[in-house]
Amino acid sequence: MTPSISSTLIVMPALNEEESVRGVVEEVLQKLPGIAVLVVDDGSTDDTAAEALAGGALVARLPFNLGVGGAMRVGFRYAIDHGFANVVQVDSDGQHDPASVRALVEGLDYADLVIGARFAGEGDYTVKGPRRWAMVVLSKFLSVTAHTPLTDTTSGFKASGPRAVRLFAEHYPAEYLGDTIESLVIAARAKCVIRQIPVSMRARAGGTPSHNPLKAAAYLGRASMALLFALVRPPVQLHEGTPTA
Amino acid sequence: MTVASYIFGVASAVLTLIVVIEMLRRRRLRERHAVWWLIAGTLALVIGVFPPVLVWAAGLVGVAVPLNLVFFVSVAVLFLVCIQHSAELTTLESKTRVLAETAALQDLRIQALERALADSAPSKPQA
Fold first, then answer.
1. Which of A31, A198, B1, B86 is the most exposed place for a label (fewest CB within 10 A)?
2. B125 in a domain, yes or no?
């Protein structure tokens, strides 16, 4: 195990994933032996926490649902408190292939935030129609903000390096789409280096992405709002150096 | 204006002020939330006692029908109170979020401590 992997914390936000979470945790531990896995149970009403514990993960239970952003900030704060340098977000529904975690963490050698992108050539994951167009438009705007070509800005498969972890432990947004769009804007404006690498995605265990044009339009509207407000908010500063006790 | 309507106007304003001040006194209302209601009650009382003030103020800002100034100021005060409440709600939500996260992290620490205790405890119960 390379040093960067051993100082990496896998954070999995989970909401009512009792069917998949155990298998995903076990797969991560099997493909990356010895890595620390923190499942953040985001107010689940089923046996998600017990299943994650049985799979061998640490489990933080939120008393009520905070959304992916709230769950992720628990992970970032835990990483700071326990001396983990990097945080990798992995979905608990099995969509992300744990084998790609190593590549994401290696990307942190030259970037603060590495996004595992679905449309970058690898894998068989596709989204069609209006929702795809919405994602493309968003990606164009975010590429300009982040000073790097990004094709899949709504990916939840992300690795954060030490600077991004410190930034996100304080400023990870909890609003709708905050964990994807606004967090990228916050990182870019705090002068974090953002890169994306291609990863393969698997089909979700349950449910298919919606292709309803009305829903796609609503999604684009809300995403544009999120982007606009993220851009007009005052940028947050990243305090350099180690935090003083 | 009849004497009855004059008394009605003054009484309403006084009643509003009494309710707000009494709630402040019993700490049911914090000053920063009461300030708008105090301003509105005081304005209502001034206009109730001296109705010509309303006509004068309407002339000052160029409102033809003085009553419309009352409606405008009422809506403005309600609007500002609503905005203030939305802002306070946002603050409370972000505080609740921090508390929830802290509770989850402390729960993790307790789990770790309990595990460490169980591991370090001697297998034989001590006498």
1. B1
2. no
Residue B59 lies in a domain: no
What is the ipTM, given to two decimal places? 0.81
Which residue in this structure is represented by tokens 């919405």?
A: A134
Residues of A in contact with B108 (CB under 8 A): 58-60, 78
Confirm if A60 and A163 have CB atoms less than 8 A apart.
no
What amino acid is encoded at A48 in this protein? Answer: T
User: Please, what are the domains in chain A?
Assistant: 3-232 (3.90.550.10)
- The answer to whether residues B46 and B75 belong to one domain is no
Tokens for B50?
């001296």
Residue A180: CB atoms within 10 A of its CB come to 22
Q: B23: pLDDT confidence band, cut at 50, 70 and 90?
A: very high
d(CA A178, CA A183): 6
Distance CA A117, CA A5 (A): 20
Name the nearest CA neighbour of A157 among A203, A113, A124, A192.
A113
Whole-model pTM: value is: 0.82
Q: Kindly report the number of other CB atoms within 10 A of residue A242's CB atom.
A: 8
Range of the domain at B16: 1-50
Q: Please tell me the distance in Å from A78's CA to the nearest CA on chain B.
A: 7
Residues B79 and B39 in one domain: no
- List pLDDT tens digits, range A135-146: 788 888 889 888
What are A26's two structure tokens?
């076990």
Query: B38 and B83 share a domain?
Result: no
For residue B102, give the chain A residue with the closest CA.
A74
